[in-house]
Every structure is written in C-alpha cells, then in structure tokens.
Amino acid sequence: MNLQKTYVEEFKREIAMTRDSLKRIPEDKLSWKPHEKSMSLGQLALHIALIPGQLTQLFSELEREVPNVPLHEARSIDQLLHALDENEEIARNHLMNWNAEELEADWSMVDGGQILLTEPRWVMIRSLMFNHLYHHRGQLTVYLRLLNISVPAIYGASADEFE
Question: Which residues are noted in the entry as a divalent metal cation-binding (predicted)?
C-alpha cells in the first residue's frame, strides 16, 4: 500500500466535504455558541480551516514543542474559505512530498524538553490531522443542526439531503 497516495486521495475527498460544510455557515451566526463552555461557531469553523496546514507544518520536523493553539473567531465566510484554501495547499504539499521513509520516521511532541509521545509520523497525521479534522467537522454539523441549517451529506445521506 502506498500510504502517501492513500493520504493524498483521502485528503482530497475530505477537504471537499469540509468546504461544503463551512460554506453553509451563516455569517451572522459566527459568534453563536450552543453552550457557554463551547467554542463559538466562528472559532470552531476557523479551527477546522486551519487544522490541515497547521498540523502538517507541526509534523514537518521530527520533534516539536506542544503548540499553543489560540482559537480566534472568523469574521467572515470569505475569511474561512480563504484560510481553508491556504491550509489545504500547505497540507497537500506536505502530504505529497513526504516519502515512505519520512512517513515512517518517529515524530515526537515535547514539553519543555520532556518527550510526551513518540509515534511514526504517519500515525500522527492519521490521529492529529485527519481524525482531529473529522471530529471538529462533526461538531460543526451539530452546530448547523442546532441552528436549523441544512446539514450536508458527508458519508451518506443526511436528513436534509436525499430525503
């Protein structure tokens, strides 16, 4: 199995579904929160848009400090889509350029010089980039449902599409 090709193809499919989900957000609801402890819709959406590029950049070196991830709120849908476009390109370039040996190389997250975890880079891409993106995109679909906005079909029909 060619892991690089598999990841590139998966990323291509998933980013299209992510873009469709982000496009459905009403601009006047970016500051809306389903609960006081939740991220705002604009924070969640911008976080989703940034995940691919920020995480592949994080994995570009074999040892990285735990990042500080500020959760800024998107100001517009154009900003969200622009951020997604930029981060899609960054992630795609990394995914296309890592060879099998680089994907198998151990990657470590450290905190103040202390190693917190070490896994092959491909494992971290799967868990911290892909799965993280899917998790937050799932949250986004719940936000959309709570706002009575049509939820896109992602892995099959949604209650709003293909009725």
Answer: 47, 132, 136
